[in-house]
Amino acid sequence: MATREHYNEYPARSSGARVGLIVAVIAVLAVIAAFAFGLVDINQTKQGSMPEVSVSGGQAPAFDVDTAKVSVGTKNSDVTVPKIDVTTKEETVKVPTVDVQKAN
Fold first, then answer.
1. What are phi and psi of 25, to 5 degrees?
2. 37 touches 100 (CB < 8 A)
């Protein structure tokens, strides 16, 4: 007599949250890169000011701290170091170029 095994088929897990996180990280890195390479220039058009705050009373805490003494120095020691001979040869190759004009 042949038996037929019963199995349940479960849907694959949604990776929507993972994709959203990756997109958010890429967007943040793109904004940082735009500022770093001068593609975005922001100029302040209005001065800001700090709010006025008054504080009275109180006392800062006091601490007595004992720390270990650390001495840093150098000493001579014999170490086996590999000796490598590198030779170079100049060749002409095509390299990519990028021209970026900074924002004014």
1. -65, -40
2. yes
Sign for the CA dihedral angle at 22, 28, 31, 32 comes to negative
Cα–Cα distance list, 28 to 24, 32, 45, 50, 79 (Å): 6, 6, 25, 29, 46
> What pLDDT digit, counting tens, does each position of 18-31 carry?
888 899 999 999 98
Q: Taken in order 27, 30, 35, 38, is the CA torsion positive or negative?
A: negative
Average pLDDT in the chain:
84
List Cβ<8 Å contacts ≥24 apart for 53-58.
Answer: none
Closest CA to 101 of 41, 44, 43: 41
Q: Take residue 93 and report the two structure tokens written for it.
A: 């190759």
